[in-house]
Amino acid sequence: MRVLAGSLVALALGALVVTGRAHTRSEQSLKVERTIYSPAVAGRLRLAVYLPAGYSSSVSRRYPVVYFLHGLPATPSSYRGADFLARALAASGRRAIIVAPQGARDNDSDPEYLDWGAGRNWETAVTRDVVTYVDSHLRTIRGRRGRAIVGLSAGGYGAVMLALHHLPAFSVMESWSGYFHPTDPAGDRALDLGTAHANANANAHAFVKTLKRGFAKRPTFFAFYVGSGDARFREENRLFHRELTAAGVPHLFRIYPGGHEQSVWSAHAQTWLAEAVDHLAHG
Predict the structure, then answer these.
(1) 77, 49, 74: which is closest to 63 by C-alpha?
(2) Alpha-carbon span 242 to 240, nearest angstrom
(3) Which of 37, 110, 229, 275 would disulfide-bridge 73, Cβ 3.0–4.6 Å?
(4) What class is the 2-278 domain?
(5) 52 and 29 Cβ atoms separated by less than 8 Å
(6) How many CB atoms lie within 10 A of CB 67?
(7) What's the CA gap between 61 and 136, in Å, rounded?
(8) Are strands 147-152 and 252-256 parallel, antiparallel or unpaired?
(9) ω before 73 within 30° of 0 (cis)?
(10) Residue 19's pLDDT is what?
C-alpha cells in the first residue's frame, strides 16, 4: 500500500467533534483514520475505517458495515492492526465498510468492551458514538440489517455481548477465538463485576434461554470459531455450542486447526468475513 498525503479536518456532529486523515490505499480499499470525541469515554476515540474499492466512484451506492473489535489487553493504537481484514474482504469479492474502533487507553487497557461508569463506558462508545458517527459520515446501510459486529479474542467476547445487549442494532455477530464471560487480563479466571445482576448481564451463557425467541423476532446470524489448540477458550466455546443447541438457538460453530494466534485468524478471515457480509443487506 502507498502513503497518501492528507490534512487534518474538523467536523462537528452534535457532541462529536471529529478529525481525520486519509492514510493508505491499495487496489482493494482505502484506509482512513478518524478521531471522534466520545461522551461515553469522556475523550477522543480513534477509528480505522476501510472503504471498499469503488466507494468514491459509486456515489449513489450504500454499503453494509462490519464493526471489528480488537483483542485485549491493548494499547491505544491496537485498532490499527486490522489491515489484514481489508485484504481478506477484498479477496472474498465482497464489498463492505470495515470500522475498527480503539478499544483501550494507556490507563484503561482491558475494559472488556463493557460499561464501567462515567468516562469508561466502552460499550456505549461503540454502539452509540461510533455507530452514530459512521452512519452520519459514510454511505452506510443504516439499521441492523446493514451492521455486523465481529471481534477476536476479547474482541470476540465484546462483539457477542454488545450484539446481545443491542439486538435492534446488529443482525450479525461473530466471535473469533473469543470467550463468553468476562475474564481477567490473562484470560485465566472469571472477572467479578461486583453484583449478581452485573455478572449475569456480562455473561453470554445467561442469555441462552431467551435467544431463541429473540432471534425469531430479530433474525440474527451468530457464528463463533475457535482453534483446536486454544487451551484457554476451546472448552468454553464447546460448552456454549452445546447450550445453544439444547436451547434450539440457531448458530454456526466451527473448530479450526491451530491455537490462539494471528495465523489462525489470518488464514480464515476471508471465509469468516464473507459469511458475515453474506448475511447483511446490500445497496
Answers:
(1) 49
(2) 5
(3) 110
(4) alpha beta
(5) yes
(6) 29
(7) 15
(8) unpaired
(9) yes
(10) 42
